[in-house]
């Protein structure tokens, strides 16, 4: 029985480490491609660039939702209280309306886990 418990413990640790290595494997360069394909129609990756339909995503990681000065957010986003960490961005990018019901973002979501991880890695580089 002790051997079985030890083997189970090793398996759990191994699975946890696999999750860490997958998260670390996110590719910001590939994420830039995802951004250009999926996000750039509405969002600018730089604070200085031209204003688009959505707010700039420069500095989005760590920023409070609804806080880009001069951008008119939906009431849902402005009052959500969300701080955009990778853990919050992931489900939002997957399905914005599920995370923030009432959002004005006209985007169906990105279902591919690897593309979302890469996109979030790229967003983290935007300052």
User: Helix fraction?
Assistant: 40-55%
**Content of β-strand:** under 5%
Q: What is the residue-averaged pLDDT?
A: 86
SS field, number of helical segments: 6
Query: N- to C-terminal separation?
Result: 53 Å
Task: Summarize this structure as a short list of keywords or feature phrases.
mainly alpha, 127 residues, 6 helices, globular
Structure description:
There is one protein chain. Helix 2 packs across helix 6 and helix 4 crosses helix 6. It is built from six helices and no strands. With 127 residues, it is mostly helical. The N terminus is likely disordered. The chain is globular and about 35 Å long.
In short:
Helix content is 51%, strand content 0%. With 127 residues, the chain is an all-alpha fold. The longest helix has 23 residues.
Helix-strand blueprint:
Layout (H helix, E strand, L loop, with lengths): L1 H23 L3 H12 L35 H4 L7 H9 L1 H4 L13 H13 L2
């Amino acid at each position: 029985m002790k051997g079985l418990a030890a083997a189970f413990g090793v398996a759990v640790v191994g699975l946890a480490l696999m999750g860490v290595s997958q998260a670390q494997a996110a590719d910001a360069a590939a994420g830039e491609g995802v951004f250009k394909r999926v996000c750039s129609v509405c969002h600018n990756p730089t604070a200085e660039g031209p204003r688009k339909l959505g707010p700039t995503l420069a500095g989005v990681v760590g920023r409070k939702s609804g806080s880009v000065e001069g951008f008119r957010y939906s009431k849902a986003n402005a009052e959500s209280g969300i701080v955009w960490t990778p853990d919050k961005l992931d489900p939002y990018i997957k399905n914005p309306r599920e995370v923030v019901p009432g959002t004005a973002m006209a985007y169906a979501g990105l279902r591919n886990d690897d593309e979302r991880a890469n996109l979030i890695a790229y967003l983290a580089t935007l300052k």
